[in-house]
Amino acid sequence: MLSFPAVDPTLDLPGDAALEPLPTTRAGMVLGGRWRLEARLGRGGMGEVWHARHVTLGRDVAIKVMHPAFATSAAQVQRMTREARAASAVQHPYVVRVEDIGITEQRVPYIVQEYLEGEDLAAFARRSGDRLAPEVLIPIVAKVLEALAALHAQGVVHRDIKPENVFLVRDGEGLSPRLLDFGIAALTNPEELRLTASASMLGTPAYMSPEQFRSARDVDARTDLWSTGVMLYELLSGGLPFPAETFAAMVIAVTTTEAIPLGDKAPSLPPRLSGAVMRCLRRDPAERFADAVDLPT
Q1: What is the pLDDT of residues 129-172, one digit of tens each?
Q2: pTM (2 d.p.)
Q3: Which of the residues 120, 160, 181, 224 is marked catalytic?
Q4: For 82, how many CA atoms within 13 A lie in the half-sphere containing its CB?
């Protein structure tokens, strides 16, 4: 099965036009003189993802092409550039590899990434009834935490950890994850903080930490641990720790209430595992694990 997430599914253009094929891309087009577009893999509000091939070496890649409606926005182009920089800030086996970045003849930015065959963790869980056994899930998440620790060591906070952004490929070790979608990652050096210092809230609401709802600037590695805790809770119990029907209700729940203990919803789980997940979901970042290397798996 071949799958690759569309670009930034959390942000949509208004109306059905967001899902129409881009007028700036077509099969057979060559980008940057070396990447031939072969087949569209997916599309979302921010653009498209294509299967492409190096015209000389024959190497397969995946290319994310920004929607031209955003290409005129300096902020959005900056954001895509930051995505490439954030993903390439660390070379790690569990982080998607960035091969190149460029601009089409129509002045539309694109990112070239390694080509992955498999499915994301959300799709994998759906085939198991939206719930995974600890012996299946924990080895995957342990590798995700390795990737996060490497990113955090380089000053990168992903800020959008969720099952859809964990892509699973099969290798000699079984299921091996790749962290995807660094479109809203924060690089925590002073220059990059100025680029992300806005009042807008970026992320997927169900997985956002309390501090993300308050300010895009007030995030560090511990916000990724919150999101990892939400992901673990969801995939171990079959439900979200803060279920809500509206965005406003979600904000109130996350910022003012405590999640139902995971042990109550999944009593067969080892108490040590349930306790570790619940510690990730403490509203005060100081009460969570300090970084990914500290979270027991």
Answers
A1: 999 999 999 999 999 999 999 999 888 888 889 999 999 998 87
A2: 0.81
A3: 160
A4: 24
